[in-house]
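About this split. The held-out portion is used to measure sequence recovery: a designer receives only the structure tokens and must propose an amino acid at every position. Recovery is the fraction of positions where the proposal matches the reference. Here is one held-out target exactly as it appears in the evaluation file.
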């Protein structure tokens, strides 16, 4: 099931992306937020093309990032051994934007990079989740761009600023709730040119490991998001470009890049 958050000019609402009886893509509106209540259709349908998709989730408390989780990305970032345990950092929920929203390049950085990633959306409050119970706490999956000011990541002793600017966490286009996460094609394109091309089977620490590990540190709340890391091929984006992150079984997250000034 593909759960979208969207607007047609009114207040944001939630719906299920599906095909109507004629095969056209529509959003079937549901009552409330499916994170917190069972799916109940209102009977209203809108053509997908007539809706403006929004970030499918606004994390109530946090976006948890994972660094250096594909070996080829570890190598391109200067080599060394991949971390033996997941490398955890945080992005503020104010960094989240939705499909089509601009990534705004901050004045403080001259080298902002895209990072295409699989994002895990948590569905229930949880802590110390054992591996075998991880499926119970995962609501679904979406595409993410872990936008990073690479120069500030180097100059600051830690990553909060480099990873935390407003608009540095595009999410979308929707949450897919039925997905086998273990071997999905993941690619990133800049102005249509493929710059990252990998598979989630190449994650050093897989989704189950990450959810269990992160929940041993933080209590996770419904709507919290875990970014699973990016493969090789990261690079700079400049104003005027468009970045797309596509994940098999989910869809494509597309965002333009603009400058602050
Ligand atoms: Mg990343």
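Reference sequence for scoring:
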């Amino acid at each position: 099931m593909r759960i979208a958050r969207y607007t047609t000019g009114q207040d944001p609402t939630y719906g299920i992306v599906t095909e109507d009886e004629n095969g056209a893509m529509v959003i079937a509106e549901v009552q409330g937020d499916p994170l917190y209540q069972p799916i109940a259709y209102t009977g209203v349908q809108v053509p997908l093309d007539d809706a403006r998709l929004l970030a499918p989730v606004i994390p109530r408390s946090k976006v948890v990032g994972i660094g250096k989780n594909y070996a080829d990305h570890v190598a391109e970032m200067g080599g060394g051994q991949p971390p033996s345990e997941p490398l955890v950092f945080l992005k503020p929920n104010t960094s989240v934007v939705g499909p089509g929203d601009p990534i705004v390049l901050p004045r403080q950085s001259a080298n902002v990079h895209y990072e295409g990633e699989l994002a895990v959306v948590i569905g229930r409050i949880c802590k110390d989740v054992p591996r075998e119970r991880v499926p119970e706490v995962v609501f679904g999956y979406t595409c993410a761009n872990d936008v990073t000011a690479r120069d500030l990541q180097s100059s600051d002793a830690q990553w909060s600023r480099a990873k935390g600017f407003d608009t540095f966490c595009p999410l979308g286009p929707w949450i897919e709730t039925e997905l086998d996460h273990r071997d999905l094609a993941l690619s990133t394109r800049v102005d249509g040119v493929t710059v990252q091309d990998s598979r989630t089977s190449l994650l050093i620490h897989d989704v189950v490991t990450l959810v269990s590990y992160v929940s041993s540190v933080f209590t996770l709340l419904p709507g919290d998001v875990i970014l699973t890391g990016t493969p090789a091929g990261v690079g700079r984006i400049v104003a005027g470009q468009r970045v797309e992150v596509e994940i098999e079984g989910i869809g494509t997250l597309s965002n333009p890049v603009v400058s602050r000034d």
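Annotator remark: The chain has two domains: 2-53, 63-259.
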